[in-house]
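lol ok so funny story. i was supposed to be doing the assay writeup but got distracted and ended up predicting the structure for this chain instead. priorities right. anyway since i did it might as well share w the group, maybe its usefull for someone
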Amino acid sequence: MKRIQTRVMALFLILILLMNGISFILYHLSQQTIDQYDEMLKRFLLYNDISNRSSGLVDELQAYLTDKSLSFYESYLRQKRELAERRQALLTLMDRPAYPIEMKNYSSLIDSLIKESEEVILGFHQEDLYLTSSHYRETQQISGFIQETTLSMINLELSQYHLLYQRMIDRNDALQKMGWSLYGAIFLLGMLLAYAFSNTLTSPIRQLAMAAKRIEQGDLNGENLKVPGRDELSFLTESFNRMRSNLRHMVGEIIKKSELEQELKQQALKNSEMDRLLKEMTLRSLQNQINPHFLFNTLNTLAKSAYVEGAEKTSDLITSVANLLRYTLKEREQKTTVAEEIDHVREYVTIQQARFGTRRIRVSFHLDQELLTEPLPLLTLQPL
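and the output, tada:
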């Protein structure tokens, strides 16, 4: 996971590297100008040193010719060696001189001075006065030429220095302008990077705030938020999406549970109403059971009273009515037999004969005895 802190550090590192890069470029360009100025100053010093060495070489040579001292000879050799070193240093320093002809002539004069001084020493050692004096005069003359040429070279360098100085001023102005321009560009780039970076932070936060406000208003059905990258904000957004999904699931479960509880309450109310109706029906059934029993007992009492009083027909009629009523009030689900159904019909016939007489109503039964025990639903045989 890329952390936001890493991105911040990378942003600051980029800005620091850019600033240091600009500073290094400006320093390098300034250092080039300083190096050019330093090389010119070294050449001035080297010209002066060559001029002094050439004069010193002639002086040491004259002292040796006059005194013939070994110390003067060693001084001469040292001056000659150092003059040759200065010549080589000048050639090395001016690898590509601005005025090659003058530099070549100047170097040739130094070589000629060294060679003529060697010829003087050679003639002196051979005790050839003419050779010694002629070469010594050449040495003095060449030394004078070197002095004059040195002044000419310095004048050329000074004229070159004026051009260099003007270029240095122009370059410094250009560097200053370029520096301000680059620093301004870096500032604008830094602002753009800071804006882009801050936008990558604030945009997901704004989305989270808006989504949280919708949740506060009860809206849990928004689309999942998407944040590019794998940093803390991405992890926070994924956690928020999971939280909203869990809330949506929990609210759905609560709604389903509430609906189920409501259905259970309604079912409980229905069951309670059914229990009440069942109890009421049971009570009515008990009441209905009480009334028929009371009626049966009353009819039995009347039948016995009529029999005691000698009214046998009345007693039989009351008994038939009681039996008919008792059979009719049986439970409908209760099974009966063919014989019981026939007895029920006989009781009905007895009552009708009592009403209309045996002459008007005559009934005969022809039954198969094997069928009398067969089961039947109650009141299968309905007397009209």
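The domain at 4-208 is CATH 1.20.120.1730 (Four Helix Bundle (Hemerythrin (Met), subunit A)). The chain has a mean pLDDT of 76.
back to the writeup now i swear
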